[in-house]
Specification:
Structural class: alpha/beta
Strand content: 15-25%
CATH class of the largest domain: Alpha Beta
Radius of gyration: 31 Å
CATH topology of the largest domain: Methyltransferase, Cobalt-precorrin-4 Transmethylase, Domain 2
CATH architecture of the largest domain: 2-Layer Sandwich
CATH superfamily of the largest domain: Tetrapyrrole methylase, C-terminal domain
Helix content: 25-40%
Number of strands: 17
Distance between the termini: 57 Å
Number of helices: 11
Amino acid sequence: MTDSKLYPLGLRIAGRKVVVIGAGVVGTRRVKGLLDAAAFITVISPTATEEVKQLAADARIVLISREYEAGDLTDAWLVHTATGIASADDAVTREAESLRILCVNAAEAEKSTAWVPAVLRLQDATVAAFGNGEPRRAKAIRNQIASWLQAEPFVQTPGTVALVGGGPGDVDLITVAGKKLLAGADVVVFDRLSPAGLLENLGDDVELIDVGKAPDNHPVPQEQINQILVDQAKLGKRVVRLKGGDPYVFGRGGEELEFCAANGVTAFTVSGISSSIAVPALAGIPVTHRGLATSFTVVTGHEPVSNLPGGADHTIVILMGVGTLADSAANLQAEGRSADCPVAIVEEGFGANQRVTISTLGSVAKDATEVGVKAPAVVIIGDVVKLAPAASAAQKSVKESNE
């Protein structure tokens, strides 16, 4: 690894002289790349691969079959040295330096004045990746970019709307398709719970429209959000509607899709990881677990929850339920769940102030008030809560206080 204080450039070397010293495997690879750039190539080497010899026979390159000599770099714009002999590569590098010619030293990157990146050519685009002197790392970066750019199922055309689930809050938990759509967006209409960090990397030309809602505070009504999506799309924009979690899990994505269709605007959905599953998992709570829970229900807490199936072996996940938590707990007990049924509250999942509170149905209202639970929070009810590390710590604390 070497210091990567690079100034990346794209070089136009068509018809310009480039000298390659050495015609082994590495030199041959350099020659092929330079041919793609239409350079005028002179190869100097006492031995050469069959591929290089054939290129010379076809008059596509000039091959001089001898060792490198001082003066061979005259009039060159760029030099590649890959002889496999350190003293020879050093001599080439020194002459290039004296003539102010950029030089790629294949053996010792730190002695190079130019580096060859791992290259991806896709239609009319060229992507170059540098790995700080580590070719394998550069290739891995290139390949990752290639897999992203070549994932075609979610290519957005102008005048359409993409409903994108941003995941539970961490910027790394959006799907590849979702991130790709964001990168190509003209307008992003985003929620309060969508991953804000994803917006920081968008270009200055991308219009950001904040339509975020908080409990009891909806500055932009849903009807207005729907109209914004249609209006922006009809201006010929690529519109991304970025939501937290999944658009169809209490995200009103279905309403937005229907409104777009009714107004002649094409819209499609890219699913996201729902906080109803991801946030409990982050706290060490699986919503199902062999021997503890074989089913689960996800429910909104805008109104107190009631009439839900099963006992403690059926997990209940409540979203947006902080304000109605006391009534929900009372309803569930009245319907047959025991007062000692485990409950976990995970506030601000994946956020800087994430906090897990462990309680029971019988005491969760009091405990939530005492610690000052605030939205956004996910409430998990059922025996699976016992698996949370925080639950084990709470049980240990109670045991020690009773001794």
